[in-house]
Amino acid sequence: MSALTPRVLSTPAAEATIDLLRDEHGPLMFHQSGGCCDGSSPMCFTQGEFRVGASDVWLGQIHGCDFFMSAAQFAYWQHTQLTVDVTRGRGASFSLEIPLGVRFLIRSRLFTQEEARHMAPIYDGEQYLTRPPEV
């Protein structure tokens, strides 16, 4: 295995929703806080609308969108590969997809030992802001 193991992926259905949102709102980003509202559901924002910092972790990109998670949440999820998907229904969040009658959600699975040996790097939000990783 020579390629780096991605920490976050997206389904075709999520990518189709991202395309709709990008057409309307421009560049997008995701953040998963584990806090209020929909708890650990990923939230989609216009790029830069959610301010990231040292208490956030950049996990990679999905369909051209940066994906961040709170560091506290990452402590629990660091051994899992996340897949952003979409389902019908209204979530209780401020995420951009809510008016479409859908909501983003996370599906996860544990990394294999082989995948864990080749993990893609992570960056805290401040590192990301000073020199965004090349993806």
From TrEMBL:
Organism (species): Hymenobacter persicinus
Q: What is this protein called?
A: DUF779 domain-containing protein
Q: Which Pfam families match?
A: DUF779
Q: Which domain of life is it from?
A: Bacteria
